[in-house]
């Protein structure tokens, strides 16, 4: 009762006054603490219980696993998994679901899939399917998420995907950027009971925006009832127009939103600033940025500052961007300096000192990202400063930083094909490279672009 009211202190007092503490009372206390945002306290009480004669049941162990997830503590989570196995609860479906979600959250996707595959298909419920599909989507394994959803439809015909399933698959489709796949997903949604679900339709808007089909995104928006269009829905479409640099459409939509009585939030302004950024509308973006706090009481976050630096730097206002950074009320993070460095690269070697300044700040914040070293090296190369290029290469070797292999993907008849630089493992690699040699005088993989690194 006390935990339901958010009163953790009173709940603990009641527990401390109990003479007989069985696993049920311990579980009530620990789960209440975890659910009310006190996972560390919950684990402290769990440790106390383990020193008593009370043995945990699988319900309590699920709570303990969730506590470690809240704390981002993978070693603790794996230790709790060992306790699950030792206690004989590793075949309990609720435990498997939690473990699958846990390993997916920590990026251990192979471990998550191994747990998923241990459960016979007839026992797999929609929550476990969701845990695995969502795990793939959130770890950037979009193709695997879509394929698993197709498998779910094939082998579990009597199981109806829920809103979480659909949103996870839509997220995967958004990552793949295939319009054909996006249309297939929308067709599925429109034939399901979730065709009017606000969260699902918002995800569809985001998906079409990322797939480059902003008109289809707007169609989904128009199909929604006016009362269903909350700030998240409006912001999703404004953000879609923003990504494509459609300043006029984003601004018009923003004005329509205000007329509809919907108050903008920080995400709305991020979409507006993105539109101004990609559309080169410097002064309009500057005006929107300052109106956030002045007109709406919204404190700009780091993403807003990074977007403004990118807007100024892209337009060639490098000094103005630098002074904007220096005047920031919060410490500039990597994305802010990265936007300035990118702007310096866009405008050649007009201000090498500023580029070096941005790069040094970046290296202090993130030493292992090869992309920033490559940008600086290419700037030096474009200015003919070859000794500096060699210096960047040497620094990368000393710090153990290596450039990631380039990768591209294409969707053909609903199947995603991925290609990595220098990789000949595709089944039709011989045909592909033969055709490339006919189309281009430059040997396949030989470059020919403007990068020197």
TrEMBL record:
Renumbered ranges of PPR repeats: 22-56, 125-159, 230-264
Membrane spanning residue stretches: none
GO molecular function terms listed in the Swiss-Prot or TrEMBL record: RNA binding
Keywords: Repeat, Transit peptide
InterPro entries registered for this protein in UniProt: E_motif, PPR_At4g14850-like_plant, PPR_rpt, TPR-like_helical_dom_sf
Gene Ontology biological process terms, A to Z: RNA modification
Superkingdom of origin organism: Eukaryota
Gene3D superfamilies named among the record's database cross-references: Tetratricopeptide repeat domain
Signal peptide limits: none
Coiled-coil regions, chain positions: none
Pfam family of the protein (one): E_motif
NCBIfam families according to UniProt: PPR (TIGR00756)
PANTHER family membership: PENTATRICOPEPTIDE REPEAT-CONTAINING PROTEIN
Record protein name field: Pentacotripeptide-repeat region of PRORP domain-containing protein
Source species: Panicum hallii
């Amino acid at each position: 009762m006390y935990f339901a009211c958010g009163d953790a202190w009173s709940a603990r007092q009641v527990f401390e006054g109990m003479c007989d503490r069985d696993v049920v009372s311990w579980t009530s206390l620990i789960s209440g603490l975890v659910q009310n945002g006190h996972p560390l306290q919950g684990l402290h009480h769990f440790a106390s219980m383990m020193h008593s004669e009370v043995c945990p049941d699988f319900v309590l162990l699920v709570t303990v696993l969730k506590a470690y997830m809240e704390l981002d503590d993978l070693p603790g989570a794996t230790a709790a998994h060992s306790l699950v196995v030792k206690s004989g609860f590793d075949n309990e479906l609720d435990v498997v679901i939690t473990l699958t979600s846990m390993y997916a959250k920590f990026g251990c996707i192979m471990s998550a899939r191994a747990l998923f595959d241990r459960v016979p298909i007839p026992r797999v419920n929609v929550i476990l399917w969701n845990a695995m599909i969502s795990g793939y989507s959130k770890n950037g394994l979009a193709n695997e998420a879509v394929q698993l959803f197709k498998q779910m439809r094939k082998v579990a015909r009597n199981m109806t995907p829920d809103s979480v399933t659909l949103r996870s698959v839509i997220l995967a489709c958004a990552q793949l950027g295939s319009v054909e796949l996006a249309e297939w997903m929308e067709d599925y949604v429109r034939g399901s009971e979730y065709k009017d679900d606000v969260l699902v339709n918002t995800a569809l808007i985001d998906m079409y925006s990322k797939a480059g089909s902003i008109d289809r995104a707007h169609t989904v928006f128009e199909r929604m009832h006016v009362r269903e269009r909350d700030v998240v829905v409006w912001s999703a479409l404004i953000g879609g127009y923003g990504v494509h640099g459609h300043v006029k459409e984003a601004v018009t939509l923003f004005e329509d939103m205000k007329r509809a009585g919907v108050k903008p939030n920080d995400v709305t302004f991020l979409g507006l600033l993105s539109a101004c950024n990609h559309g080169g509308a410097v002064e309009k973006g500057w005006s929107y940025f300052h109106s956030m706090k002045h007109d709406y009481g919204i404190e700009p976050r780091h993403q807003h500052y990074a977007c403004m630096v990118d807007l100024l730097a892209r337009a060639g206002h490098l000094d103005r961007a630098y002074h904007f950074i220096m005047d920031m009320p919060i410490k500039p993070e990597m994305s802010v300096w990265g936007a300035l460095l990118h702007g310096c690269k866009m405008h050649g070697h007009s201000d090498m000192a500023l580029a070096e300044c941005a790069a040094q700040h970046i290296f202090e914040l993130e030493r292992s990202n090869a992309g920033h070293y490559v940008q600086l090296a290419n700037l030096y190369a474009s200015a003919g400063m070859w000794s500096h290029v060699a210096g960047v290469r040497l620094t990368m070797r000393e710090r153990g930083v290596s450039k990631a292999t380039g990768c591209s993907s294409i969707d053909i008849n609903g199947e995603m094909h991925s290609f990595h630089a220098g990789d000949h493992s595709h089944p039709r690699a011989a045909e592909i490279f033969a055709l490339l040699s006919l189309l281009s005088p430059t040997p396949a993989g030989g470059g020919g672009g403007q990068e020197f690194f």
